[in-house]
Amino acid sequence: MGVEKYFYRYGKATFTLFLINVAVYVVESILSGNPLSISIEVLARLGQWNYAVLNYGWWWQLLTAMFVHVGILHIGFNMYFLLMMGRQLEGILGPKRLVMVYLVSGLAGNLLTLLLLPPNSVSAGASGALFGIVGTLIVIMGVVGGNMQGALINAFVLFLINSLLPSVNIYAHLGGLVVGMAIGYYYGKRIKRHLMARMYGYGYY
């Protein structure tokens, strides 16, 4: 069965995103000559260097940065949470919407990073996208379960705990989380209407 079992276990979109992140890290490691820690030169090229985005027109970095990681522990933790949280959201919304949440949330986090961190800042990581996935999950459960207050508290605690870690880009986390929560609210409402329609037997459009 080979690799197909992992697509089945984690979801085809989630595992594809995982493979892309790992493949990019392999390239980073080769360019850096070190698989454990990526050089700042490589991160400035493949990640998000605010100065290059603003002055060289490297706007593509706002997308590539969400697949770039600074070291083996960084990608290890992020890919673990991608597999655990991504497959849950993919099971609820499907593969296309999972990818949409990843990309839109990651982009929001990187744009906020561009606006609020100094021009010489270099950042990278899937954290903004992952916060978007988790924010979407939390709010969907809050809306469907009728406990939005609990969902907002959970989201705030998640952000607070992760913001205390060293060398964390809190702006990427915040941007991804807020956008993910907005997406979760939209789909949570749709799911709840659908469940109510099935429960009471009226049409759903």
Topology at a glance:
Layout: H1 4-10, H2 12-32, H3 40-46, E1 48-49, H4 50-55, H5 61-64, H6 72-93, H7 95-116, E2 122-123, H8 127-145, H9 148-163, H10 170-200
Antiparallel strand pairs: 1-2
Helix pairs in contact: 1-2, 2-6, 2-7, 6-7, 6-8, 7-8, 7-10, 8-9, 8-10, 9-10
What is this structure, in a nutshell?
The chain has 205 residues and is mainly α. It contains 10 helices and 2 strands. Helix 2 (12-32) crosses helix 7.
Description:
There is one protein chain. With 205 residues, the chain is mainly α. The chain has one domain: Rhomboid-like fold, CATH 1.20.1540. The protein contains 10 helices and 2 strands; from the N terminus they run αααβααααβααα. The protein has helices at residues 4-10, 12-32, 40-46, 50-55, 61-64, 72-93, 95-116, 127-145, 148-163, 170-200, and strands at residues 48-49, 122-123. The longest helix is centred in the C-terminal third of the chain and has 31 residues, at 170-200. The mean pLDDT is 93.
Annotation keywords:
serine-type endopeptidase activity; Rhomboid_protease_S54; 205 residues; mainly alpha; Rhomboid family intramembrane serine protease; globular; transmembrane helix; hydrolase
Largest sheet: 2 strands, antiparallel
Class from helix and strand fractions: mainly alpha
Helix content: over 70%
Q: Report the uncertain regions.
A: none
Q: Give, in spatial order, the strands making up the sheet with the most strands.
A: 1-2
